[in-house]
């Protein structure tokens, strides 16, 4: 029997107990022995729950119990999740986490401790919910060089953008509806301003490069300024707008990591990733593009990913080898030099097209209702700023393409 | 240093040598030691190749060399691939294979030998080329019950169907073009008649159920009879036609496995899997739908998958646990009871709609150019036969939906 402890008995914690109970037989077959939840740490009591008798309120009960081999951290936030994780790893217990904030902020140190102590720190559920992506990137993509990652990583914003696209609604209206339905938090800032996606792309970038950036410091733009007109423009061009986390390795080996809304073309496999689904498109030197797709959130999908990590951690023969290094200034690519296709909309008419064409050399143009929209080939941020500074027309909106 | 031997120095064998050479530094870092190709078995000599000096013509040189820990079988076909694989495993050497025919035909026995001898039999490259799918299904989906798999598994047929859809061309014309471009074999039967896809879905079904069916015996229909008119009908309904390998577990636990062309709706993530790409959509009790997407064939993607298996096999701490059982008659679901949505086209006009509606109760109808096309809710094969037997109109074509 393998004893584990769950830290946090909220949505994901409850789901994890449910998966372990519902699929007990299958899990025991895979593991060759039973998986037993010995403790659940939570501030609250759950007298009505069938797991209520497992609840403890003090972490040292878990930490000091040598029978507990695996601690499952589903508390969220940085503290005390970080301190609890560190203490468990230092005690030689493996830790499974669904907590992207803790992984993004402290992953490098926690992975180093796990390696030193011969235990594991696993976090499949921290990115992409139920989608297998962390382990495939670590194991299946081990022999290839990852060149870029483009990913839809936040279900709430993707739901909002899908609704805007399908129903022609404005951002604020869809957000209010999503909040009413429980798809968006009362305070949606971390989602709609892209911080949640930033933490996740920083984790994926670390998997790809071995270097972890500070999620708070990467170039980040949310979806709050996207209008229904922008969405209609995208549709007219055969695109849609998605919030994209993007990692790429520049030619000089430096790392670029950003979150921003982008025009995504119909030819891109991320185009059809709709509603609360997530998609992670990884480009590498040998495999070309591979994509992982599925439910990026939700109780059971996320809990399923947690339990697959528990099985992995419970396998006695695995060791931790992955190491991350904190990024320093030399690792980070200059965002000003970042080059990609662009979309601009200006106030203007047919008569203004000559100026636009001269300055931007667009590949597509659309003129309607006093508005000129264009798509360009790759331009750097710097050349965008230069071009806009000499253009006499009033800019309405600008986007990157993917 | 870990010594390996490559069996077969064709397209995939050459690609594998290339990946190991090009990414030597990365592989050594992952492995903690160098990966060395000691022998290449082939009937031919390759005096011009930088690997030419490694070529041997007798397998016993490899088999009797105790330094060779991993044998990489990329010969294709059943024989002597099966005999060579079995001999290697019996000698305690792990085997990595890209050979779907050998895995589908002899996987159960070979996995049993690997488990008995404490070595590994791995075949990530046998399905979906460079797409990580076998290992994610084994490891990440270990704690969940897989309910169904729907997959585009053959790049050649998907290329042909994409061309037919995009350019309105007939099957024979596109096939001729694909053969000219090297996307289709001179003898394309295994692809266009669905045998290649059948072998792959049988392997995925075994991963999902632990039971392996005979690929030659599953219900199978290729793409040779699909007309440009069928494709236009699909488009009119907002669908496209794809060759789909389908596994599902019936309610009584029996296994259903089939390959057939299907109408795939725009809402399905497989809809946008175009050209030579593959997509594997897996539905499970906890994770919901996850999809794996990428290049299902090609020298470097397939070789990349082979090398990820070599790294896995070279990891000293892993053991083989997966076991397959050969299917017996009781395992196999009755195809006659298989239920899914249907598409029918009949010769007929507006005046015939009443009869059609009475018999088939369709959800959508399309009448044009003397042809009535309908989409229905789920019907069993048996009820399809019954309905067609009482319908007075001449059937032009029928398809399943997904």
Description:
The structure is a homodimer of 402-residue chains. Chain A is an alpha/beta fold and 402 residues long. Chain A folds into 3 domains: 152 residues, Rossmann fold; 162 residues, Dihydrodipicolinate Reductase, domain 2 (2-Layer Sandwich); 63 residues, Alpha-Beta Plaits (2-Layer Sandwich), CATH 3.30.70. In chain A, 36% of the residues lie in helices and 27% in strands. Chain A is built from 14 helices and 18 strands. In chain A, strands 7, 9, 10, 11, 12, 13, 15, 16, 17 and 18 form a 10-stranded mixed β-sheet that branches. Chain A has a 6-stranded parallel β-sheet with strand order 3-2-1-4-5-6, with helices on both faces. In chain A, a hairpin with a 5-residue loop joins strand 10 and strand 11. In chain A, helix 5 runs parallel beside helix 10 and helix 7 packs across helix 8. The first copy, chain A, is elongated and about 75 Å long. The interface between A and B is large, with 52 and 52 residues.
Structural class of the secondary elements of chain A? alpha/beta
CATH class of the largest domain in chain A: Alpha Beta
Please count the beta strands of chain A (DSSP E, at least 2 residues each): 18
In whole angstroms, the N-to-C terminal distance of chain A is 49 Å
User: How many strands, which pairing sense, and closed or not: the largest β-sheet of chain A?
Assistant: 10 strands, mixed
Would you identify the regions of chain A where 5 or more consecutive residues have pLDDT less than 50? none
The appropriate CATH architecture of the largest domain in chain A is 2-Layer Sandwich
What is the count of helical runs of chain A? 14
Give the overall form of chain A.
elongated
CATH homologous superfamily (4th level) name of the largest domain in chain A:
Dihydrodipicolinate Reductase, domain 2
Largest interface: A-B, 52 and 52 residues
Total count of domains of chain A = 3
């Amino acid at each position: 029997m393998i004893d584990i402890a769950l830290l946090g008995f909220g949505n994901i914690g409850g789901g994890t107990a449910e998966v372990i109970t519902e699929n007990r037989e299958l899990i025991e077959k895979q593991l060759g022995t039973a998986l037993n939840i010995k403790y659940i740490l939570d501030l609250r009591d759950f007298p009505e729950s069938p797991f209520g008798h497992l609840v403890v309120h003090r972490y040292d009960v878990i930490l000091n119990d040598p029978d507990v081999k695996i601690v499952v951290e589903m508390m969220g936030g940085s503290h005390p999740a970080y301190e609890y994780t560190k203490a468990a790893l230092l005690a030689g217990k493996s830790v499974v986490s669904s907590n992207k904030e803790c992984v993004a902020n402290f992953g490098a140190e926690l992975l180093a401790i796990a390696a030193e102590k011969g235990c594991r720190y696993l976090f499949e559920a921290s990115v992409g919910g139920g989608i297998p992506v962390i382990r495939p990137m670590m194991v299946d993509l081990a022999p290839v060089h990852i060149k870029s990652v483009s990913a839809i990583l936040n279900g709430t914003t993707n739901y909002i953008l899908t609704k805007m696209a399908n129903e022609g609604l404005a951002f604020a209206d869809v957000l209010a509806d999503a909040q009413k339905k429980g798809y968006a938090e009362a305070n949606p800032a971390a989602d709609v301003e892209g911080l949640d996606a930033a933490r996740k792309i920083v984790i994926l970038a670390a998997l790809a490069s071995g270097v972890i950036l500070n999620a708070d410091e990467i170039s980040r733009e949310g979806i709050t300024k996207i209008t229904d007109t922008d969405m209609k423009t995208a549709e007219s061009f055969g695109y849609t707008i998605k919030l994209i986390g993007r990692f790429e390795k520049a030619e000089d080996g430096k790392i670029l990591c950003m979150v921003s809304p982008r025009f995504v073309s119909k030819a891109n496999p991320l185009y059809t990733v709709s509603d609360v689904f997530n998609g992670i498109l990884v480009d590498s030197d040998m495999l070309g593009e591979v994509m992982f797709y599925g439910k990026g959130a939700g109780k059971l999908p996320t809990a399923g990913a947690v339990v697959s990590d528990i099985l992995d951690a419970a396998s006695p023969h695995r060791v931790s080898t992955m190491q991350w290094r904190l990024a320093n200034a030399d690792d980070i690519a200059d965002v000003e030099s970042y080059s990609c296709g662009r979309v601009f909309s200006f106030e203007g008419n047919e008569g203004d097209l000559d100026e636009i064409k001269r300055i931007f050399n667009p590949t597509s143009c659309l003129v309607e209702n006093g508005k000129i929209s264009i798509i360009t080939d790759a331009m750097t941020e710097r050349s965008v700023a230069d071009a806009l500074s000499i253009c006499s027309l009033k800019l309405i909106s600008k986007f990157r393409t993917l």
